[in-house]
Structures are given as structure tokens and as C-alpha cells.
Sequence to fold (231 residues):
Amino acid sequence: MLGKLGAVVTLFGLAAVAGWIYVSLDRPVRNVEVIGSLAPAEAAEVERRLKELNPRRLLSTDLGALREHLLALSWPRLVQVRRVWPDTISIRIERQLVVAKWGGEGYLTAGGKLVGGLDRAVSVPLLDCEVASPQKALEVYRYLQDIASEDDLEISALAENALGEWRLELASGVRAQLGAEALRSRMRRFMQVHRHLAQVNAQPVRYLDLRYTNGVAVRFDEPQMLAGGRG
Fold:
């Protein structure tokens, strides 16, 4: 009987010590540090999420729930949360790598995932499509850019209208209408014409229409008018 009583007292003592240790370690959270290269709008979103959960104490805070709450934002690729004694919760956030801007709605990752429409100072092409999905638009952009890269040309914008017709704009400002079909062959024809005109014509090309079966319509820059006149 005394042995059992001693065991109960011992267990009670251990529980009391454990409880005291827990309470001692469960200190008030005085600092939440966020590590990561975030745009101002992204940092503001993280701050709002943290205020919603409002972590108060170091041990009592559910780090898993906090992590999931931040991952629910569309743009983080990675979120790591840890306790730093005596009074800090440290959060590391890495953004998704974006490869294109999607109309006015946001950005696309390499996998075609749409992430929030945040203001980021990144130089990526603009994709603006009325029919194609983000994944399809990226596919079209990639094989057209592969062809353009043969002449070190860069596609800065690719758009599709409600009829499924595609048009592109190069970083140089040259625009091309490709239509809805045979995009690869029309892009090849565009490259041939663009290359030829760059060699034989001093006047810059502004627009090419490749929707014709056996031809190309070309528009050149308007000639520059010199100020003044003959005296």
C-alpha cells in the first residue's frame, strides 16, 4: 500500500515538475521575425495572416497551423516556422518563381499556377489570353520563344483574342499577328521575313501579319519629319 502511494506521489511530483517546466518555457512571444525577400504587398499579407492567428506564447502556439495559414496564400513556395528561445517565433518564406505575368490577374509559375496579383518588380513576359488556359499559354509561349531565340530575339508579350488568334510583341517593339493555326510554321516565316528585312531595309519594321497563306503584310515605322524648313 505504501509502495503504491509512494509511486503516486512520485508521479504527481514528476507531473508537477513537468508542468512547471512547461509554464516556465511557455513564455510570451515578444518577437515574430519574418525572413525572406518579400515585396511590400506580400509582407503586408503575411502581417495580416499573423494578426489573424496572433501567436501569444512560445510553446502554446501551434506552429503547424501557423505554417498552413501562411501557405494558404497563393504565392509562397516554402514556409518554415520555428521557436527561438526565449521569446521569438522565426518564419522563413520563399516565394514561387514566376515566369510570366497573366493579364491583370497576377503571375504564373513555371508549372502554370496562378499566384496572387501582387506588384513585383520582375521582368517577365506578359501573357493575355481570352481562350487558352495558363498552362496552354505557357506552352505556346515556350515553343515560340525557342524559335525566336535562334536570332536572339525576346518575346515580351503574347496575346490571344476570343477567336483564338495569337499575336506577339518582341522586346524591340516589333509586333506580329500569327492567327489561330499553324503557329510554328508562321513563326518560322516571321523569323525569315524579319531577318531578311533587317538585312535589306534600313527602315525599322513595326508590324507583320502572317495570317496569309502565301504572303506577309508588313508595316514600317512612319518616316521621321525634320523640324523646321527651308529658308
